Amino acid sequence: MEIKILGPGCPKCKALYKAVTETVEEMGINADVKKVEKLDEIIEAGVMLTPGLMINGKVKVTGKVPGKEDIKKYIQHEI
Predict the structure, then answer these.
(1) 3-state DSSP call for residue 3?
(2) CA 57 distance to own-chain centroid
(3) pTM for this one?
(4) What pLDDT was estimated at residue 49?
(5) Which entry of 1, 2, 10, 48 is annotated as an active-site residue?
(6) Would you call 49 a catalytic residue per the annotation?
(7) DSSP 3-state helix, strand, coil percentages of the chain (rounded to 5)?
(8) For a Cys staple, 50 with which of 7, 17, 23, 59, CB 3.0–4.6 Å?
(9) What's the alpha-carbon Rg for the chain, to the nearest Å?
(10) Angle CA 72–26–37, to nearest 5
(11) What's the pLDDT at 46?
């Protein structure tokens, strides 16, 4: 599973990265969590509001930091 956090490194982007890594660890799944901070890559992914959460190539959230329960649902949907 590939999970990307798309954003320039703002506080919300960092909060989303932390929430995602903690959720993945709590769920005990094997996922490659990456930060994408290059603006051209973020735009190419179709994210206009950061932070963005992309799981297995599908954008799940933009412009906000979802709660851990929501993150779990997004991950389970892609398993």
Answers:
(1) strand
(2) 11
(3) 0.95
(4) 95
(5) 10
(6) no
(7) 45, 25, 35
(8) 7
(9) 11
(10) 65
(11) 95
Mean per-residue pLDDT pooled into runs of 10, the chain (79 residues): 96 97 97 97 96 98 97 96
Contact 51/7 with Cβ under 8 angstroms? yes
Is 10 marked active-site?
yes
Q: Please report the pLDDT score of residue 2 as a whole number.
A: 98
H runs (alpha helix) in the chain: 11-27, 39-44, 68-78
Of 53, 26, 16, 13, which Cα lies nearest the Cα of 45?
53
pLDDT for the residue 32:
97
Of the residues 13, 19, 20, 65, only one is catalytic, namely 13
| Cβ neighbours of residue 6 closer than 8 Å, sequence gap 6 or more | 13, 36, 41, 42, 45, 47, 50, 51, 52, 53, 54
The C-alpha atoms of residue 29 and residue 31 are separated, in whole angstroms, by 6
